[in-house]
Design brief:
By secondary structure, the chain is α/β, with parallel strands linked by helices. The protein is built from twelve helices and four strands. It is 68% helix and 9% strand. The N and C termini lie far apart (98 Å).
Length: 375
């Protein structure tokens, strides 16, 4: 039988204290031998000091056995103290030092208070704003360089991006806005009919759709389709280090990935808004025709009087701002994704939430500005 790689010697023995010295390498394989040495050396001593300064290597099982020596063979507690521990030996002995009656797990962290939540939310908002401004600055720099070198901009994907964001989205956008126009027309017809104002239904539906609901509903749907898609696509490219590979090849991600997507939404969203306006007006027209039994010429004439070209223009101006916000937020969140698949999911969720919040804020700002200037 091979001799153990450790030594356990008695340094001194007194009436109140037994001092032992442990040296060498002590692993789980030496457990039986270590336990026999401990039991033989400790005997009936109730106060023990073990010097571990000369231990080269200590395994987890050996550390557990050393702590187990704090109990006598009769089950009575024994005071055991370790001295000279350093480095990994000290950390391992501290890890296994589970005191009787105390849990081994760390206590759960205290829940932050309301002020901490508010402060954290404010800090996140500041960090996100700073990141977005830096992203817009990088995009502006990339656009300046792209104008100087048009071939460095990746225009070959523009047609595909326009098709995915535009043509593929026409059915759902037309259907949703048709239903919005129909619901709004029905609710308005019920109220207007009480006061004999049936003829004003076209004004209600037309102005509401071209100035507010058409651009906003279209932007919300584009956020769910294209914005989430951009964030997930760029996020996947980021975590797979494809964006880093582009930089290694000397390609600017702003010009190669971001600018074509921004341009695609700027081209597509105003057109989709016009389609949404038309679909919403048709929804209100069917309500006037079926529910109010209104002649078609009455609805069309009132619509022509109520909705001017400037009203359509304000909606298109909003839609362009919405498109810019959706594209920038989605691309920024996608390029900042970290942490694998979970990071891509978080980036996509964040892009959708922030985009929807931004759309409402931008819409409120435009509405107030238009009301101040009399548009």
């Amino acid at each position: 039988m091979a001799s153990p790689a450790f030594t356990l010697t008695e340094a001194s023995r007194g009436e109140d204290m037994l001092r032992l010295q442990l040296a060498g390498s002590v692993t789980l394989a030496d457990g039986p031998e270590l336990w026999r040495h401990l039991q033989k050396a400790l005997g009936s001593a109730t106060t023990v000091e073990i010097d571990v300064a000369h231990v080269d290597r200590l395994g987890g099982g050996a550390a557990a056995l050393l702590h187990a020596s704090a109990t006598t063979s009769e089950g009575q507690p024994r005071a055991v103290r370790f001295v000279g521990a350093a480095g990994d030996t000290a950390r391992l002995l501290d890890l296994y030092a589970a005191r009787p009656g105390e849990g081994c797990e760390r206590p759960p962290p205290a829940q932050p208070g309301l002020l901490a939540d508010v402060g954290e939310f404010a800090q996140v908002g500041v960090d996100n704003t700073r990141a977005m401004l830096a992203f817009v600055g990088d995009l502006a720099t990339g656009l300046v360089r792209g104008v100087a070198r048009p071939r460095s901009v990746h225009f070959s994907d523009l047609a595909l991006l326009v098709e995915r964001a535009g043509m593929d989205g026409i059915p759902i956008i037309a259907l949703i806005n048709f239903l919005v126009g129909g619901v709004m027309g029905l609710q308005g017809a019920i109220q207007l009919q009480r006061f004999g104002g049936d003829s004003f239904l076209a004004s209600l539906v037309g102005l509401s759709m071209v100035r507010e609901f058409g651009p906003l509903m279209t932007a919300i749907l584009v956020t769910g389709r294209s914005g989430a898609g951009y964030a997930a696509e760029l996020g996947t490219m980021t975590v797979n280090e494809e964006v880093s590979a582009l930089r290694t090849l000397g390609q600017d991600p702003q010009r190669f990935l971001v600018f074509p997507r921004v341009l695609a939404l700027l081209l597509v969203v105003p057109v989709l808004t016009l389609i949404a306006d038309f679909a919403g007006v048709i929804g209100g027209f069917l309500v006037a025709l079926i529910y109010l039994e209104q002649p078609p010429i009455v609805y069309l004439q009132m619509l022509q009087r109520a909705v001017a070209l400037g009203d359509v223009g304000t909606g298109l101006l909003k839609s362009a701002a919405f498109a810019m916000a959706i594209a920038l937020i989605a691309c920024q969140r996608g390029l900042s994704a970290r942490g694998g698949a979970a990071g891509v999911g978080n980036a996509t969720t964040s892009a959708v939430v922030v985009s929807l919040f931004s759309l409402v804020v931008i819409d409120a700002v435009f509405t107030n500005v238009f009301s101040l200037v009399g548009w």
